[in-house]
Amino acid sequence: MDLLDLVKKLVSFNTVNPPGDQTECAGFIRDYLEEFACVNVLVKDGVENIVAEVIFSKSGKNLVFNGHWDTVPAIADEWEADPFTPFVKNGWIYGRGSGDMKGGLAAMMHAFKRISMEEGFEGKITLMAVGDEETGGRRGTRFVLEHYNDRIDHVIIGEPTGLKLKVGRRGIIRIRVEVVGEEKHSAYVYSGCLNPIEVASELVSFFARLDLKDGTEIMPRTTFAATMIQGGIKENMVPQKCSFVVDVRNTPFVDVNRVEELIRKKVYELQEKYKGLEVNVSLVEGGKPYLLKNSPIVSLSATVLNEMNIPVVYDAGGGASDGRFFVEKGVRNVVEFGPIAKNIHGVNEAVQIESILKSKRFYEEIARRVLSL
Fold this sequence. Notes:
This protein has two domains: 249 residues, 3-Layer(aba) Sandwich (Aminopeptidase); 117 residues, 2-Layer Sandwich (Alpha-Beta Plaits). Helices cover 30% and strands 27% of the residues. The longest helix is centred in the N-terminal third of the chain and has 19 residues.
């Protein structure tokens, strides 16, 4: 099966997550890889994760390719064609998951097979094709790494980076705030009222204005975005409580302790302003930030791109990826590289064919170099 047919085959499987428990796509990937690799299937809550290995020698490096086959939902009526019936148009393959990230995964699978057929290497190459990334990775890469005991030296993640080197990601901190005020008839606020909605709005505005000046040339600054709010039970009542959630994307220069300190200071100011005010705050860290531009795998990747006449562009923006799980495991040689995509998570998602072919070649060249070190 040639590479483009492999992309279309993967896209043809409806792997929307949630629920993420489809077995047909995982079964196809398993069968494809079993022809030339040793394959294990790790299952978590119905999600099948494929881990394939080709061992060239007991010594040498372990190079890991990582990609996910689950996708976000698609509303078929809004698409030019059925989102799970892939088609080619003007050099692009259309279909849900074509860009994020079945195009990159197919390129990795093809490169993995090609390398497995070559000789003269040391170490081993591993392919992790996981089924849970879009809902946080708890049943995907995180679960796989909890049960993977071999040393990992280098990691390439095939996310659709637009042929850029993704060398870092900001972390995730979720702030949940509950403001407790005074429940009262809305017609009598002139006599004094501690309105939790008004206080919450001050806090939301505070977060929106925060600029910690911690961004770099390739990584955006820490951002605070209010994403959920709840308050009130009736239109003529001042509610007793108002709660909201702030999604924080933090750089390596701003940790959870710094964020907690900023909140504590602001809450103290508000409690001085509004006597009797109660504010309950909880913080949950969903992933630590990292920036690995100076790692050996990034330097090697830049060399390969130069040889391929592809501009070397570094990037550390965007949302979270499975890279954080490898970093948390102590792996410091992690880079993301993959094809050009458009309308990711949107209507008429597509991946550029030329960039898939370039990605495949990149994966092959990286493997040849790592396994020859």
